Amino acid sequence: MESTKLGQWLKLNLLVILLVLLKAEADFVPTTIVQNAVAKGAVCLDGSPPAYNFDKGYGKGSNSWLVHMEGGGWCHNVTNCLGRMTTRLGSSKQMNKTLAFSGILNDKKQFNPDFYNWNRIKIRYCDGSSFTGDVEAVDPVTKLHFRGARIFEAVMEELLAKGMKKAQNAILSGCSAGGLTSLLHCDRFRALLPKGSNVKCISDAGYFINAKDISGAPHFEEYFNQIVTLHGSVKNLPGSCTSKLKPELCFFPQNFVSQITTPIFVVNSPIDSYQIKNILAPDADDWKNCKLDITKCTPAQLNQVQGFRKEFLRALAPIGNSSSVGTFIDSCYLHCQTELQEFWLFNGSPLLANTTIAKSVADWFYDRRPFHQIDCPYPCNPTCHTHVNQDAEL
């Protein structure tokens, strides 16, 4: 018993030390407030101006741009959105003056060998709609603004003026709700940049699937319906999808991804911890231990998790397997990997075909080799590990 406790103590403290070291390696980048966006109506939920963090590229990376969309879930009703107004997810007034860049945004060659000297930008997320909302009217009582699509346009306009209009290479990426953004806005991003430039998009943990929960209810479809309706998102969803399906269905990548013409790369787990917690078993009290720690799932619960994996892979099929598309689908029980150094590129990072996420993405982007890898079912991959509270927010 004592040896078990000692082992657990050592494991926990080694994890803490690792996280401290990784944080020390991160680059802290100042926050830029886009003051002139207010005149365009491009504002956060509370009416404050949008923001981004920008670390300027240099050397061979001077004309290459990596634009990363911050995640943070969505707000689906007035009460939920009001709650976000007093946080960084609804107001630039609540954002820190600096932000740590790591993983795909890291400025050190040993941790990010292919993108470290690019112009690296993180667009802050304060609208709650994956940058799709656009409602002109502002309720005089709540003072809520639903202007996510305008934020996207205003920040892109500023980045173009800062040199992105001359980009030779460009990536639109994002994690979770930001990963969904990178898919929804991928072709729009490509259209902003010079013809002949190498432009691609990366979605990390943003491939949310339309699956029923364990009770058989379409919980997440109803949730997406509330988001799209509240934010007036329909006009900013792919028209090729909304002309055939209900708007909320066009918030699910499986229903529009085949129509994206720009090359895309999907990093995701088919047992993504957020999706298991919120799509498969959102209100199940008896799933509490399982959702917090997959090793504590009962055999019956684990069987349902594996069933969700099969649904995810079916929903992923429309992405196809052309060389312009890349996939890194590991079976790790986690959420978001590209902007966390321990998952992107570090000792012990998740591997598929003996390849890290960082190398697979770079090989695909530079056309060095195609990368299509789908992991075997959990728990077969010994390189998988979890990260404490790493999916607390999308």
TrEMBL record:
EC number assigned by the record: 3.1.1.-
Signal peptide span: 1-26
Taxonomy, superkingdom: Eukaryota
Gene Ontology molecular function: pectin acetylesterase activity
UniProt key word Cell wall biogenesis/degradation: yes
Subcellular location as annotated: Secreted, Cell wall
Enzyme class: hydrolase
GO cellular component terms attached to this protein's record: plant-type cell wall
BP GO annotations: cell wall organization
Keyword tags: Cell wall, Cell wall biogenesis/degradation, Hydrolase, Secreted, Signal
InterPro entries hit by this protein: PAE/NOTUM
UniProt keyword annotation of Iron-sulfur present: no
Function as written in the Swiss-Prot or TrEMBL entry: Hydrolyzes acetyl esters in homogalacturonan regions of pectin. In type I primary cell wall, galacturonic acid residues of pectin can be acetylated at the O-2 and O-3 positions. Decreasing the degree of acetylation of pectin gels in vitro alters their physical properties.
Record family assignment: Belongs to the pectinacetylesterase family.
UniProt-recorded name of the protein: Pectin acetylesterase
